[in-house]
Amino acid sequence: MRTLLRCFGIAAILLVTAFLLAPFQLILTEAHLLRPPAIQLLFGAGRTDQVGTGLAATLLPAVPPQEVSADRYKNLLERVKKGDTSVDFLELRHAYADSPEYSSIEDSDESTKMFEAFNRKDYAEALAHAQKILDKNYVDIDAHHMSFLAYREMHDAEHAQFHQNIARNLIKSILSTGDGKSQKTAFEVIATSEEYVILKVLGLQPGSQSLMGENGHDYDRLEAVDPETHLKVTLYFNVDRPMGHLHKIFSK
User: Fold this and answer.
1) What is the pLDDT of residue 108?
2) Domain limits of the chain?
3) What is the Cα 117 distance to its own chain's centre?
4) Cβ-contact 198, 173 below 8 angstroms
5) What is the distance of C-alpha 228 from the center of its chain?
6) Which residues have CB under 8 Å from 113's CB, separation 6+?
């Protein structure tokens, strides 16, 4: 039965990934969505060389997950929506993954519409689609990033800064969990889309993806390429939470 569930899980994750990769190709056609702005979002100018070739050098130390109560996510979410950037965003993501609102199956159709609207320079429509995503999943990094870019194009500095801060802190919370170089130090993610966000932040182009299990944990292994050096990079992501959610769905 576990093997069957794993097969269903692999299919579901690969399906989600396939839908997610198409939107990423769309946004990469926009000059201001290429590597420099994404890297500067976290590390600032002058450090892009460190990120592309020395992954561990720029990452924060690992932070262990915390136990959260049933209403912890709602409390943290309320603080974030009020602009409180002192919130532990790793705890926020874990609290969401432990909440009834959590779903590891993302709305790829809404994401595609969001990216397409932005590329048409229809920023109001892009924001409308982004808000629909955030209404279901407020820790969706792409939706906050697109909201930041859309508001910036509309010269709404206050709202642009609000979403930029959230996107930056969500990304930092993933980077704080490891360096991605091995299963032991894998980045912890709660959604497949977070894996591709990290690839973009590190300036890497995605290649193949495979799911593996070891010592009771599930991992995604992503093969990527640094477009500047053409060096191949292997990154590991701990996908226990999304796989656990899929197991629950298919075991019902």
Assistant:
1) 85
2) 2-182+243-251
3) 20
4) no
5) 23
6) 125, 129
Query: What is the pLDDT confidence band of residue 104, given thresholds at 50, 70 and 90?
Result: confident
Length of the chain: 252
Model-wide pTM > 0.90: no
Question: Is the confidence at residue 14, as pLDDT, over 70?
Answer: no
Residue 198 pLDDT > 70? yes
User: Which H or E run includes 75?
Assistant: helix 72-81
How far apart CA 197 and CA 203 sit, in angstroms, is 10
Distance CA 16, CA 142 (A): 15
Phi, psi of 171 (to 5 degrees): -65, -45
Q: Which two tokens stand for residue 248?
A: 């629950």
- Sorted by sequence, the CB contacts under 8 Å of residue 102 that are 6+ apart come out as 96, 190, 245
Which one, of 217, 220, 219, lies nearest residue 207 by Cα?
A: 220
Tokens representing residue 55 in the block: 């992954």
What the block records as the tokens of 44 is 């600032």
Does 209 or 33 have the greater pLDDT score?
Answer: 209
Q: Give the integer Cα–Cα distance in Å for 148 and 162.
A: 8
Of the candidates 216, 214, 215, 234, which has an alpha carbon nearest to the alpha carbon of residue 224?
A: 234
Contact, 173 vs 89, CB < 8 A?
Answer: yes
Checking if the pLDDT of 38 tops 50, the result is no
